[in-house]
């Protein structure tokens, strides 16, 4: 039978040496998965090789129970085009394991509550497809923490999440919470809300690698953090030095 991978010796050697479990997969599933990828998803041989290299277990999935339902979900519920589905699966292969997403409907309900525009859900799914395999309790706790800590209304929360979908994936206890707590040492909750709304990507920065040292630099210049533009947190050293030099020149003049 025709097999897209049989033309590439390297991929077969990889499967043989690194993933011997490949040979325990039902042949029906292997053939079905390959045919589905090629014929239904219109993947090229290179696409399939990238997919299988990332996640060899893809070849064990059932078309009926996993691959077809996953594709239907992304098309019918989220409005993905075929090319968007293909790109999402290649980027994050675990999304095809539909039978493993016991809470996928709960995640969809949460997304519907948060976003009025289906395009927002589509964009988040494209940027962070992992969101569909995350426990619903984790997602709810992350969203609730952001909303409560900064006293965000729904529109503000929606604006931050659409600007930085990665927030769905960041843990509260060892990532987002320490950052917000540090900011609150230097500004009010209202100022923090405005600061993050101006530049949500601040929350993806490293606390020790970027936020803490940058705030230290700003304080050394005699500024209140809330009086400085939020983009300074994300600017590189050259950009920050240019801003600092401009400020110094203005003051001295």
UniProtKB/TrEMBL annotation:
Keyword list, A-Z: Transit peptide
Cross-referenced InterPro entries: MTERF, MTERF_sf
Keyword Transit peptide on entry: yes
MF term (GO), any: nucleic acid binding
Record keyword Transit peptide present: yes
Pfam families noted in UniProt: mTERF (PF02536)
Family: Belongs to the mTERF family.
Record's protein name: Uncharacterized protein
Taxonomic source organism: Leptocylindrus danicus
């Amino acid at each position: 039978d025709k097999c897209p991978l049989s033309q590439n010796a390297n991929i077969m050697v990889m499967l043989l040496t690194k993933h011997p479990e490949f040979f325990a997969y039902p042949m029906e599933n292997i053939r079905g998965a390959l045919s589905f990828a090629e014929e239904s998803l219109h993947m090229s041989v290179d696409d399939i090789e990238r997919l299988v290299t990332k996640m060899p277990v893809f070849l064990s999935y059932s078309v009926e129970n996993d691959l077809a339902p996953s594709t239907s979900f992304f098309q019918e519920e989220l409005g993905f085009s075929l090319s968007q589905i293909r790109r999402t699966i290649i980027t994050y292969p675990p999304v095809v394991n539909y039978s493993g997403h016991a809470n996928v409907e709960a995640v969809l309900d949460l997304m519907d509550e948060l976003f009025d525009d289906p395009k927002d859900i589509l964009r988040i799914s494209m940027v962070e497809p992992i969101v569909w395999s995350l426990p619903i309790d984790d997602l709810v706790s992350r969203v609730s923490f952001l909303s409560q800590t900064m006293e965000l209304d729904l529109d503000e929360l929606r604006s931050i999440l659409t600007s930085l979908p990665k927030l769905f994936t960041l843990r509260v206890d060892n990532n987002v919470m320490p950052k917000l707590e540090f900011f609150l040492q230097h500004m009010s909750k209202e100022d923090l809300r405005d600061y993050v709304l101006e530049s949500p990507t601040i929350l993806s920065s490293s606390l020790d690698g970027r936020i803490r040292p940058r705030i230290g630099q700003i304080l050394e210049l005699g500024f209140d953090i809330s009086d400085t533009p939020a983009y300074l947190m994300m600017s590189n050293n050259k950009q920050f030095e240019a801003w600092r030099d401009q400020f110094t020149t203005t003051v001295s003049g």
